[in-house]
């Protein structure tokens, strides 16, 4: 805010008042707060208005890679777990995990366009609300399903008696419903707070926590940030670390050869979650301090887009880390592909045989006609 006030000094008084009102109106944005301030600063410095910084370009690369790799990867998982394989508790987890990531990635081009157009949102208010809601819904549903998968693996392998009694399809479906409900409740505020603001033919999609009362803005901003951090990062991370640590210890006691592979698999899973999600939540918490000081404004401008891109990138890693590294999945995948190819070749062969029989019968009929003539 201090930087923006300095840039406004040279403007006429009436124009200063108009711009300052709009800056205060959007300055406390939650997820894209620094994007909004960057936009207004660029409006005042016309020579930089159409340029994207290095952080934005890096984030665009991460978004694009997540979309290109994640859509087909999750689609393959959905196809096999949802339509080709027998329904089990494990396949239900992976199916819903893939659905959450897949739906989120399908809407990612809207956000890519938003960043590529220098944070100009031409898609309207309702799509601004819907896009933010769907993004949050599926991002946190994905995190919750990763957490449930770690719990399920631990219970299934370490407590087989309890697993046999309670690990049923019915209970799994109930857990899936609860996960989607909680994710929807966390994402729900986006439908209420998310709005668009137009200024000089430039529209932004932002969180309007309150137009005039700074105390309400701060309260809502802090509350939503800490809820997302605790429920969407801290508790899932602690759950995965505890479950996989206990699981690794148990496997190590049973077989040293198996424990080595299992250890590296577990390490890859936990590290991927930490690398992708830690920067996103740390910068979101750090962003709260901007209300009191603008000293690290430029750091946040660079850090938030990149950290958001890393969080998005986790959606394309999930099929690889949680499914494709499994030998059992690879065997079932190869068997399913072999069966599909065999079925396709059989159909081609059958159609070719029918075609040859048809040609043979036609030739035979022509010969009979010539003989009769």
Account of the 3D structure:
This protein is mostly helical. It has one domain (51-326): Rhodopsin 7-helix transmembrane proteins (Rhopdopsin 7-helix transmembrane proteins), CATH 1.20.1070. It has 14 helices and two strands. It has helices spanning 2-8, 13-26, 33-44, 54-84, 89-106, 108-116, 125-158, 160-166, 169-187, 189-193, 214-254, 256-287, 297-324, 327-372; strands at 194-199, 202-207. Strands 1-2 form a two-stranded antiparallel ribbon. α5 runs antiparallel to α13, α7 runs parallel beside α11 and α11 runs antiparallel to α12 (256-287). It starts with a helix and ends with a helix. It is found in: Cell membrane. InterPro entries: CML2, Formyl_rcpt-rel, GPCR_Rhodpsn, GPCR_Rhodpsn_7TM. Residues 73-322 form the G-protein coupled receptors family 1 profile domain. It is a multi-pass membrane protein. This is Chemerin-like receptor 2.
Average pLDDT works out at 75
Structural class: mainly alpha
By CATH reckoning, the class would read: Mainly Alpha
Question: Can you tell me the residue ranges where pLDDT is under 50 for at least 5 consecutive residues?
Answer: 1-49
CATH architecture, please?
Up-down Bundle
Q: Summarize the amount of helix as a percent range.
A: over 70%
CATH superfamily: Rhodopsin 7-helix transmembrane proteins
What general form does the structure show?
A: globular
> What would the CATH topology be?
Rhopdopsin 7-helix transmembrane proteins
